[in-house]
Amino acid sequence: MPSNLPSNVALAADQRNSPVARISVSMPEDLLAELDGMVSARGFESRSQAISEMINLQLLEHKRQLGDEVMVGTITLLYDRSVRGLQKELADLQCDHIDEVISSLHVHLMGQQMMEVILVQGPAARLQAIANRMTALRGVVTGRLQLMAATMPPLHPPHPMSMGKG
User: In what order do the strands lie in the sheet with 113-123?
Assistant: First the structure.
């Protein structure tokens, strides 16, 4: 599938390749009119596609709240880089959680602002705890953990020759 297509189109293609079940949903007419407006504005192919995305988002939130599901996501931070020691504290937190932190990228913004995006993977509750520690630091303006119900393959899978050696 071409990479320039919106993610909802790629999702629709994936969904077409798997078996589907049909359900019936009743709702007030004004809510249906709002749904139809969103379907059109966002370029969904159908109401079903839009509703499936909404259900996926709610299921993802449910898994995040349960806390033990291994998930992948990002912690996005906006902070004041002039706050003494803040960048070191953020780097130290990432090192302290090396099993969960996969990669990070920071971008210098206007003035003293910095945006940092940290790719993470692990149990949802642990990722939320890491994000909470980062966003609570003095100088962090805002931060958000965004999770997806997916996991990355191991970065360094065991080599067959090293199995069983100690």
Answer: 101-108, 113-123, 70-80, 140-148
Q: How many angstroms separate the CA atoms of 20 and 46, rounded?
A: 14
**E strand or H helix at 37:** helix 29-42
22 Cβ contact partners less than 8 Å away, ≥ 6 residues apart: none
Per-residue pLDDT of the chain (166 residues; tens, 9 = 90+): 444 444 444 444 455 677 888 888 898 999 999 999 999 999 999 999 999 888 888 887 777 666 677 889 999 999 999 999 999 999 999 999 999 999 999 999 999 999 999 999 998 889 999 999 999 999 999 999 998 877 777 666 666 665 555 5
| Rg of the chain, C-alpha, whole Å | 20
Amino acid at 138: R
